[in-house]
Amino acid sequence: MTYRRHRPARNWGARLHETTWFGMRAVVLENELLRVTVLADKGGDVAEFCYKRRDMDFVWLSPDGVRNPRDVAGGASDDVAAFLDHYEGGWQEVLPNGGMPSIHQGVAFAQHGEVAGLPWDVDIVADYPNEVAVRLTVRARRMPLRVVKTFRLVSGSAELSIDEELTNEADVAVDVMWGHHIVFGTPFLRPGHRIRLPDGVEAGEDLTVVPDHGAPSDIHYLTGFGPEGWYEITDPESALGLRVAWDATVLEHLWLWRELGSIGEYPWWGRAYVVGLEPFAGYPTEGLAEAVRNGSALTLRPRETRPLWLRASVMDDDDKENA
Asked: What confidence tier does 100 reach under pLDDT thresholds 50, 70, 90?
């Protein structure tokens, strides 16, 4: 992390500070409405997305909390536990393998491998009362991939913007799955929450209402987004919700994962009531080799750089009334 120990102190408007969570470097971006904590030493995870007016964190924090990947579990590990043993909930970058362990182009990938478990470099690129931004950078270890990701908050806005570049640093083409593993749970998510999608999205069944506790776990792969993908997930009683938008020319699919407390064994033990709404290039959750086989993986040409943008915006009718 690039520390700037002598930057002017500020506790108003947009601001940021470096901190440590459980021995890991983290950076906090904050304005009058949002506080966003990013774990630089663990995948660049968004571990906190707190809307201050309601003291509401939109991303799920698992019952096990944040765990440092350097703290290895005492039991036997495997390519699934490599991700789950340190999964705190939140919002992960998934690249180049989505879902289960997979082997492709001579590489063996663990679940959601590999950048979600790596430390990222951090540079402060804007630090002003009207705007703060930090740039995270990582290189994968098993594939010739480099990711540059910039988080940005503007004063007075309840929107987090993310702009990325994914580069294939090799002279040969590579196939990848690329996604954002965004999961909603406590304290925000409850039965009856509404999910709104663009007209024309192919879902296969009605997925617009979050089921009750104990409903079967499942996963769906949604297609048919236009150039701009988006969804909204809202509490119909309070009208509080989050709208996520992204470049659907890059992430063409949306994974909708529902774990509603029905799994009473590892890894959830009946403690997870969550819905994941995850923009993705590639499906299904069986991993990269299957995504390549079905033609849904993203292919990067030699030395190609692919840009991507995402926006996460709080929706709050009370905020509008008080504006």
From this structure: very high
